[in-house]
Design a protein that fits this description.
Elements lengths: L5 H19 L35 E12 L13 E2 L5 E22 L4 E11 L3 E7 L8 E9 L2 E11 L1
Parallel strand pairs: 2-7
Antiparallel strand pairs: 1-3, 3-4, 3-5, 3-6, 6-7
Length: about 170
């Protein structure tokens, strides 16, 4: 079953209504000999019928990452105090501050262990018209292995902000 959004349904209804109006319109001939001939636009081919799922709608994004902070917890205002040293059972919070407008923009964070192994990867959806803070929290029930880590942020799959390094002891 194909799931559609209300916007997609509205666009499809408008498209079908336009096609129906064009198809039902009678060709009228002008009997006024003084009128200038009407300009005719070249006929455009009808769009091919849709098969499968509709293409994803492009996200409206004019958002930039202003800072990335790694810490142990977030305050009520989403602020995160920077931490460079963690205990194995600590949560790791990657805080991403953004500026600008965004509609359904994917903000992701990836933790990489010192040997290059991905220790965690998560994302959140950003909808904002101004400055915003998005916090992504990583937990490890078994405890984080001791070593050095790197936190990287992506916006719509592209690297953004400055990667942050921290250590677990």
């Amino acid at each position: 079953m194909i799931k559609t959004t209300p916007l997609q349904n509205a666009l499809m209804a408008a498209l079908l209504g336009s096609v129906a109006l064009v198809g039902c319109k009678k060709k009228e001939e002008s009997t006024d000999t003084n009128a200038a001939p009407a300009a005719t636009a070249p006929a455009e081919p009808a769009p091919a019928p849709m098969t499968g799922a509709p293409p994803p709608m492009a996200a409206a994004s004019a958002v930039a990452v202003s800072s990335v902070t790694v810490g142990k917890s977030a305050a009520a205002d989403k602020s995160v105090a920077t931490a460079a040293l963690f205990a194995p059972k600590d949560d790791v919070v990657v805080s991403v501050k953004t500026d600008g407008a965004a509609s359904n923009v994917n903000v992701g964070a990836k933790l990489t262990f010192q040997d290059g192994q991905v220790a965690g990867e998560q994302s959140a959806t950003l909808n904002t018209s101004g400055a915003e803070t998005t916090n992504i929290t990583f937990k490890n029930a078994n405890g984080w292995p001791a070593g050095k880590y790197r936190a990287e942020v992506m916006v719509d799959g592209k690297a953004a902000g400055t990667p942050q390094e921290f250590e677990v002891k």
